Amino acid sequence: MSAENSNTQSGVVIIGAGLAGWHVIDAIRAKDKDIPITLVTADSGDRYHKPMLTMAISQNKRAADLVRATGADAATAAGVTLLANTHVTDIDATKKQLQLISALRSDPANTHYATIGYEKLVLAMGAHPIFPKSLPQDLVWHVNHIERFSELQEQLATGAQRVAIIGAGMVGTEIAEDLLKAGHEVTLIDLNNAPLSQMLPAQATARIAKAIESQGITFLGGCLVSDVTRNDDGSLQVSYAPLESANYDEAQTTQTITVDHVVASTGLTVDGKLPAAAGIEFDTRTGIVVDAPTLRTTTANIYAIGDCMSINGVACRYVAPLRAQATTIADDILGVEHSGYDHKPPMIRLKNKAISVMVTGVPRAEGNWQIKADSADELIMELLDNDDAVSAVVTIKAPATP
To answer: PANTHER family annotated for this entry (predicted)?
Structure first.
C-alpha cells in the first residue's frame, strides 16, 4: 500500500536531526520565531548528545536517559514541522524541491511519497560508519546512533561478555574503556601498532597503547581482520592476521579469537547521492565542500554543516564548532549581517582515565613533529608545517596519583 502527495510548502528545510540539525533550528529561532522550518529525518528526531554514547554503558545510562527531548516535543517547542522516519531520495536544485519517502518500522508496507519545496536547504545529514567487507553488518555493531547503541546495551545487560572492537581511533579507544569499566572483557584490534596512529606520531601513541593495556584491555596492533563468523553456540569468531605476514601463507598466519560481540569503529563516510543530485561539489573522502565563511555549498540556496561537510579539504567531524557553524548559517539564511564563520580546529580530548591526551590544531601522524617536553609524566610535541609554524600540538600526561 502506498500513497503519494505533493506539498508545496517552502521556507527552510533541514535534512538530519542530529546535533547539527537541531543547532541550526536553535540558531534560527533565536532570531526569527516565524520563518517556516521543516526538519526531515530518517529516525524519530529525538534530541541527544551523541558523544555520550562512548561512555554511557559503564554509567548504566539507557537510551532514554540520554534523550533530552523527543523529536515530537522538541519540534512543537521550536515551532518546527517534523517529518520523522522519512528519507530524502532526490534533490531538484533547479525547482528547489525534495522527493521524500516515509514508512514506519511497525508498518513498512504503508509507504508514503511526497514532494516538498524549500527556499533554503541545510544538509545536516551526518556521516555513517564504514563497514569493510570483512565486517558483515548483520554480525557487527556500531554505536554511531542511539538506536543501535540501545540495542547493543540490551545485549550487554545480561552480564560480563567478551567484546572485540575493530578500530582504535578516538571513538574505538573510548568505547574500549567504557566497556571495560562496565565489566566486559575487551579486545581492541587495529591495523596500526598503537591507538590514534592516524592522528599522532609513534612517540605519542606508544604511551597511549601502554596506558590502555595497563587497564586490562587487550590490544592487537598491526593486525588485519579478515572475517567474522557465527559459531554454532551463538558466539562470534574473529579471524585476523598480522600485516607483516601478508607475504606468507595466510592459512599459517591467521589467528582467531572468540567473542560475544564485535563493534566496528573503522571510520565514517558521507553518502554522495544527494550532493550529486543537487550538483554540489563533493569529495568522496571528506564530504560536501563548502565556502568557509558562509558554509554555503557550490549549489545556490543549499548549506551544509557538521559531519557531512569539509572545509579546505578537511572533514569537520567534531561537536565543538557546531554552534558557531549553525549561527553563521542562520544569519546567512535570515539576511543578518555577519562577519563569517571563522573555522578553528577544536581542542580534542581522549576520554580515558588511564592517560590524559589533549590535541589542538590539525594533527596527522606524518610530518615534522618536534618534542618540546619528555618525561615519565608528560610528553609535549609540536607539528611544524613547511614554514616551521606550529600546526598541531599534542600533550600527554600520566593521571594524577590519588
So the answer is: NITRITE REDUCTASE [NAD(P)H], PYRIDINE NUCLEOTIDE-DISULFIDE OXIDOREDUCTASE DOMAIN-CONTAINING
CA–CA separation, 143 vs 22, rounded Å?
Answer: 20
Confidence of residue 212 (pLDDT cuts 50, 70, 90): very high
pLDDT tens digits for 302-319? Answer: 999 999 999 988 899 888
CATH of 130-264, one of 3.40.50.150, 3.50.50.60, 3.40.50.10710, 3.40.50.2300: 3.50.50.60
Rounded alpha-carbon distances, angstroms, from residue 60 to 38, 47, 64, 178: 34, 19, 11, 10
Taking Cα atoms as reference points, which of 122, 135, 137 lies closest to residue 88? Answer: 122
| 223 backbone dihedrals φ, ψ, rounded to 5° | -125, 140
The pLDDT of residue 8: 46
Grid coordinates 513498512 are at which residue? 108
Query: Which residues lie across from 99 on neighbouring strands?
Result: 90, 115
In the block, cell 592516524 appears at: 198
CATH of domain 2-127+270-334: 3.50.50.60
pLDDT one-digit tens code per residue, 314-366: 899 888 899 999 999 999 999 999 999 998 888 999 989 999 999 999 899 99
Q: Which of 342, 381, 68 is nearest to 208 (CA)?
A: 381
pTM of the complete model beyond 0.85: yes
CATH 3.50.50.60 domain range(s) in the chain: 2-127+270-334, 130-264
Check: CB of residue 218 under 8 Å from CB of residue 168: no
